[in-house]
């Protein structure tokens, strides 16, 4: 049991560290802030400090990718009667394409290269606009100074490091291809030195920049230059797109051929969330406006003497009956207004299927009867009326808003942060 717990903790720690890493070749968008040593490109993140020495918190961009308005829309899981995380989170752009992914599972593996967040954003905006031709999504790594080109064999892309001749006996390598870490490349140069291909090399890099100053015979450098320095010094790695596997929204493993196909699979899932958001906001605004109007009407009825609360002659039940006769909405009717949306109906259907029933609050007017005496003023009536009018205006604006409008607004806010 102890080993299982340690294993689970290890997986969590590795995941958190991976989400916070921001060195070249790790994340294009890191969702957590790396406060401490979360690893460098020297060892590809394997040099991260022990968990007890590092600290992290949510990156500022995270809430632009995962809007707070979505929190109530997600389907949350339960563990031992406690609500825990949702089945899945859904950012406004597919981070799987932006940051890429590499891993293995039982009977399958995956490798998805990182891509430009701006390209993904432009692709979605073009799709929202109904463009006939959608832009291409290109591979990209933040801070990478080399080149990424299409693989001539059609298997994806190839990344190249960067080198330049300083003299007829010296070459400077100041960038490595993606997924080739500094220590790993040092091992390649050591083997070349042992074989006599290079004379020596000097390291002058830091945790973020690469710098190998390599010395070799002028005749050898001439031959390598003719053959191609990138080939001779192994400054090339493949970014294949032939093994791009990922889970879909139903938890099924799917194979994708291009980055665009992943975005296409993501698109309807994200669009459904915006449709749910509009339905939820409309019912919520209607609910809030109804409460404000009922409160204003209640104050008028009490101050005019239509409803007697001060004499103490009526019971709460009789008062509730009187309120009902005057057309005030009780808690059940207000909840019906609040829950008049497809999201609630979908969840209620699932709940009735699983538990065989639903629980509604009993009818009451506590939201009116619990108002303080200080509310029984003309100023309060006017204030409530103004608030209700504001909610009605927001409701009308929301009715004319489409899911495309909401998504485009979120994307425009995100674009300012990229």
Description:
This protein has 418 residues and is α+β, with helices and mostly antiparallel strands. Among the domains are: 1-59, no CATH class; 162-234, 2-Layer Sandwich (Gyrase A, domain 2); 275-402, Topoisomerase, domain 3 (Orthogonal Bundle), CATH 1.10.268. It has 14 helices and 13 strands. The protein has helices at 2-20, 62-65, 95-99, 117-128, 182-194, 218-227, 229-232, 259-303, 316-325, 331-338, 342-355, 366-369, 378-399, 403-415, and strands at residues 76-79, 82-86, 101-105, 108-112, 147-150, 156-160, 162-165, 170-175, 200-203, 212-215, 236-240, 244-247, 253-256. Strands 7-8-10-9 form a four-stranded antiparallel β-sheet, with no helix packed on it. A three-stranded antiparallel β-sheet has the order 5-6-11, with no helix packed on it. The chain has a two-stranded antiparallel ribbon with strand order 1-2. The chain is elongated. The protein starts with a helix and ends with a helix. Residues 1-6 have low confidence and may be disordered.
